[in-house]
Amino acid sequence: MDRAPGVSVRLKLTLSYTGFLMIAGALLLAAVWVFLLRYVPERALIVPGSTGTPTHGVFPIRSNLLRVFAPRAAAVLAFLLVLGLVGGWILAGRILAPLTRITDATRMATNGSLSHRIRLPGRKDEFRELADAFDTMLARLEAHVAEQRRFAANASHELRTPLAISKTLLDVARTDPNHDTGELIDRLHAVNTRAINLTEALLLLSHANERSFTREPVDLSLLVEEATETLLPLAEKHGVTIETSGDITPTTGSQALLLQLTTNLVHNAIVHNLPEQGTVWVTTSVRPRTVVLTVENTGEKLAPELASTLTEPFQRGSERIHTDHAGVGLGLAIVKTITHAHDGTLTLTPRSAGGIRITVELPAISPHTER
């Protein structure tokens, strides 16, 4: 925003200090003058010999006092004026020095340098709280930008793969007219389906990040029933048993996004499970202020450091082999984004026996407040 030049804060503080000092000095001099008027008589009678002079008579005391007091009071006020201007300018500069460092850091951040930190020394005060908050904001912004860059690079790589495969298949079909057309069509269909799924996942991730959705009462237990019913054929194909239990869990948010969250969790638990006779446990529970959705599955043992990275885009717990239901690497990333968009928390905990336990905790509402 373009603004017209104005008076600096340092000059304003200097003038404020000076004005306050002048007013205080003037009040002090006025108090002295009132004191003198109260206890000094208007005229005095001088008796010969009392002052060592032969003169005698009545002399005006107050008028002489005024002539002596006024110029000295003016000198004092002039001194206070100079002292206020010089001292106020120095004090204002020292007080505003941290603000200058904060402003310089802000300009550097505006120019794209997010690695710079203020690191204002000294004990805690208002300026240091502001500097620390700004440093925290820069750290989070730097991490967010780095994450977005990694996401863009990974997304470009993931989108380039099906396009490259499609181009290869078309080149083969063009150079080999006798190639099986049916097989080519099937492979192109699978590749294009994967590209479409990845694009839709990216759009869903962007939509959840923007929080541009209408909040309404939602029961997570009903979403669990819908998701498990939809994914039951996939579970049977993989030889996985799904067990559901829990209470009514009312919360607020987007029903479509929360259904996507639940579906992604159950789908992830089915696909990344034991080769046969695997189990998925889906439970819902209510706490004093939150509702909890827990999806737990059997599977390979995971290291804690690996589990913490599974919510990053295009990260998978097993090898990056694209099977029919391997997903596009955004399932848990979407879950994380939807959870944060609903002011919830997501926790991933490896099971000692193998597999993982994923817990989503969202703000709860009372059942009687539902419409």
Describe what you observe in this structure.
The chain has 371 residues and is of the alpha+beta class. The protein has 3 domains: 9-113; 151-210, Helix Hairpins; 216-369, Histidine kinase-like ATPase, C-terminal domain (Heat Shock Protein 90, 2-Layer Sandwich), CATH 3.30.565. Helices cover 57% and strands 15% of the residues. The chain is built from 8 helices and 9 strands. The chain has helices spanning 9-39, 61-110, 126-175, 181-210, 220-237, 255-271, 304-307, 331-341; strands spanning 43-46, 57-60, 216-219, 240-246, 250-253, 278-286, 290-297, 345-350, 356-363. Strands 4-6-7-9-8 form a 5-stranded mixed beta sheet, covered by helices on one side. A two-stranded antiparallel sheet has the order 1-2. A hairpin with a 3-residue loop joins strand 6 and strand 7 (290-297). The longest helix is centred in the first third of the chain and has 50 residues, at 61-110. The protein is elongated, with a radius of gyration of 39 Å. The protein starts with 8 loop residues before the first helix and ends in an 8-residue tail after the last strand. Residues 318-325 have low confidence and may be disordered.
